[in-house]
Amino acid sequence: MYYLDGQTSIKREIVLSHSGDDLVIELIGDTFSSDKITWKKEAISLEESMNTGTSILKYGDFPAQYIYLSHDEPILDDLRNTLKRKDFGEYVTDYALKGKTKTLIGSVLLFVFITAAGYFVVLPKLAEGFVMQLPMSWEEELGERIFGGMTNEQLLTDTLVTLRIDKEGSRLLQDFVDDIDKNESDYNFRVTLVKDDLVNAFALPGGRIVVFTGIIDLMNSEEELAALLSHEISHVTERHSLRNLAKSFAGYFFISILTGDANGTLAFILQNADTMNNLRNSREFEEEADDVGLELLKLNGITARGMIELMTGLSELEESMIGDSEIIKFVSTHPLSKERVEKAESFLKSQTDIRENEKLTKKWRRIKSHVNLEY
User: Fold this and answer.
1) SS3 assignment, position 320
2) Domain Peptidase M48, which positions (predicted)?
3) Are residues 128 and 140 in the same domain?
4) Is residue 315 within 8 Å of residue 337, measured between CB atoms?
């Protein structure tokens, strides 16, 4: 057994004995003091650990003195009958009786608040800042590998998002998007048309845009298609899908920062590739994509009326399909709001340089005819 005086880390061997209501401590071979140390038994607490086989005698508050001894020390049999053993509840009770209940509760609540804030606010922001520094080549590789997983039935046997690509429709859609001025963006935009009645479209990191035939069916003009594509192009240029991933998998991105293991995070994201077309864009991201998308329409001389008509059509369809909302996936991942429509209407009023674009009109008619003929 040994003794700690609470002021130094020196362990001193001791011999214990009783003297009435006192516990007497005699230091073996002590060169510091010839006096024996006396503890009042009423001020001693006994803590016993069944896992380590060690008992601890504690005396005083601060600095507290300690004696460490094994369970089988003979003197413990007598001490157990006379000393007070404290469990966790008693320590809390003692703390409260000393008038520190509010401090204890406050400390616990502060800890919970800081932990929650770190996980739900700080960590996602750190992860978002981290991915914004990633090179475009990494982002493009991520998008391609996610897209490859979505279109490979062997890799996604247990998921519902295996995409059935319309090759001819994709070629026509790509031809359309190639004629839209992207404001000198460095991204290589690749658009894919998917055979599916879902009213949906989404953007992947790096320039991949996926459009479902269900949303083409809903459209009546090339302006609506241009508005949709401009919106999705903006999601790419503003890195919304990558930032969404960072927020959703913030813990894994944080581990990547600490360990430098970007491949580990990439592998995890690929395992969850089927969540990409279900990630809900925040109101902030949607408004940002609207703003940038409207500017792209203006740059191309395309009326913002297409954006208004597209939003209105989606909203009306949502209202008419209560109970079957899964079919209109675009609204669940791109939340509509009255403010977004009003902003587009305000933008239209100030738009002056609207030009006819016969090339886009012809390409739109080919796309619409193809979808109507095939489906």
Assistant:
1) helix
2) 175-345
3) no
4) no
